[in-house]
Every structure is written in C-alpha cells, then in structure tokens.
Amino acid sequence: MKKHLFFLTFFLITVPFYAQKKGKSKNPPPPPKEEFIPPSISQEPGASGDNNMSVVMPASDLTRINVTKTNGQKIRINQINELENLDFSQVKELSISTMMSDQSLDNRILQKILNEANQLEALEVANFKIEKFPEIKAQNHHLKKIALDKNDLRTIPESISNLTALENFSSGNPLRELPASFSQLKNIKELSLNYTEFSEFPKVIFSLNKLSFLYISGNYKGNIKIKELPDMFQELPELEEVGVTNASLSKLPKSFLGLKKLKKVNFSNNQFTEFPEVLAANPKLEFVPFTNNPLEWSVFLASIKKIKWRGLFFLNETGFTKKQYEEIQKILAKIDVYYDGMND
C-alpha cells in the first residue's frame, strides 16, 4: 500500500511539472537576486537542551518591507529602523506592511521617503497607523501608484497635487473628504476609496477625466452614507468600471447613459428597490453585482425586462425565494444569474 501511495504522489508531482516545462519554448531570464534577512530564533529564558528549545517570533518578523531598486534588485527587510540606512534615491518600489495590531509608523520616515525617493514609482503602506500623511514639499514626476490601507487616515493634504504623475490611488481609510487640489491629479486612471465616511460623493472626482476605474465604499457599520450621486458622470467618459457600495443609493443619474465604455458596475449594499434603467439600457455591461438591496418583487421584475446586456448578474441576499430566482433566470435567459441557494 505504501509503495502505491509513493508512486501516486510521485506521479502527481512530476507530471504537472513535466507538462509545464514542455509547454515553454524558451527559458525565461533568471529573476533579480533577492536579498532576505531571515527571522531570528531565540531561546526562552531558563531553557536548556534541544527539547526545551522554542522558536520565539520577534515583533519584527511580523513586519514586511519589500524594496525594488531601480536596477531591478529586490530586498526584503524585517525592521523599520533599517530603512534609515537605505539609499532612497535608488528605490523604485516600496511596500511597508505589518500583521501586528496598533502599530504606528513615524511620520518622519514617510517624510524622508517622499523627500529623498526621487525615482520612486510605487508606494504601499498597510496596517500601520499614520497620524497624518506628510506634506509633499515639491513636485514629484515619478510616483505613479500609492496604496494606503488601514492607516486610520481621515484627511489627505492639499499638497497631494504635487504628485503630477500619479495614475493609481487606493485607500482603505475613514476619509471624510478629498481635498480640492485632488482635482489637479489629471493623470489618475484608477481610484479606489474603501471604508470611507463620505456624507456626499466628492465632486472633485469629476475633474479626473482619464479615470477608467472608480470604486467607492462606505463603512458598512457606519451611519454616514452617500445618498445620491451627482448628475455629472458625462465628465468621466473613459470609465469602464464603477462601483459605489455600502451606501444609501436608491437611484442613478441619467448621465450614466453617456458612459459608452462602461462594462462593470457594482451597486451592492445600497437601497435600490428596482434595477436602474440607465444600467438596463447599456448593452456593453458584462459584470453586475447587485447584492443586498431591498428589492421589491413586482417593481424589480418589471425593471429587469428592460435589460439589453449579457453577462454575469449577482443577486445574493435579496430575500427572494428559489422559485422567484428561477423566474428571474427565465426572463434573463441570456444572462448568468447568481443567487442564494442556487446549488441546493
């Protein structure tokens, strides 16, 4: 029996490897060498002998700092204080994250990065609390991507406009507003704002006419919600994906009809009772999550009969019965409808 298990295991491992290897016509160039600082292994006080040896995970082992230099070299660092010895002028990408709770990142470190990393193209800071995002003191023509997640940030400085090359900005923070200067970031193509505390949709976004991806999510546990969208979406003609979730929307503005490139929308966790006509009329839609809305059966049923698109339609958590879902699928015969209990 053991012999059979051995050969079965060997077969499962080697066959996929051989198939993968066979499919490649050329060997790819070797990746840049990655430097790695291993976690330390320490012995508990009073312990002796191999049987009492234990691995103690230091706090630094829960911190990850990934650096990509301008020459392609990759470095991994486990301690924040080692950043002090880093030549930021040679850094192209920088990611700083931690798995520890209630960890703060000294603003002086962020300020040093923004001041000295003049070749930096991508910056990520995750799970570190940031008291205040530092000022950008001079125009920066290289930084293209910023990702800030779970930092407890509530504001962004007006000087964000100095990041003239910024193309992708994402935040998972309880932001209450965007600064007026955000409208000057004309190169932004992707904007993702999660866990926000916006009481109104930020109108400065309509100045970003290169946007192709826009996603805004409120705090699902919070009471501050976006209740309506301005009728200004004709100002964003490049939009291909848009989502506003964890809000209190019950209708969409007519300007959505002008979004000729729109393919994916997400309006889950809102207050819609029917499917918006401005979305039903768009023949290019192909991916539509519309989960957890208080849909009214008869009104909703009438609204989906106007749908002109084909694709994926997600209708979970609506309160409909399986029989009602089956009726929806009959009406939308050319659309794949996903719903609760569909595999029961």
Write the layout of secondary structure elements.
Blueprint: H1 2-23, E1 34-36, E2 63-69, E3 74-77, E4 91-98, E5 103-104, H2 107-116, E6 122-126, E7 128-129, E8 145-149, E9 168-172, E10 190-196, E11 213-218, E12 241-245, E13 264-266, H3 277-280, E14 287-289, H4 297-304, E15 312-314, H5 322-331, E16 336-338
Parallel strand pairs: 1-3, 4-6, 5-7, 6-8, 8-9, 9-10, 10-11, 11-12, 12-13, 14-15, 15-16
Antiparallel strand pairs: 2-3, 2-4
User: Spans of 5+ residues with little confidence (pLDDT < 50)?
Assistant: 1-57
Helix percentage range: 10-25%
- Major sheet: arrangement of strands: 1-3-2-4-6-8-9-10-11-12-13
Largest sheet: 11 strands, mixed
What percent strand?
15-25%
Question: What is the ordering of alpha helices and beta strands?
Answer: HEEEEEHEEEEEEEEHEHEHE
The end-to-end span amounts to 38 Å
Query: Radius of gyration, rounded?
Result: 25 Å
Number of helices: 5
Q: What overall geometry do the principal axes of the alpha carbons give?
A: elongated
User: Quick check: average pLDDT?
Assistant: 85
Q: Tell how many strands the DSSP assignment holds.
A: 16
Structural class designation = alpha/beta
Quaternary structure type = single chain
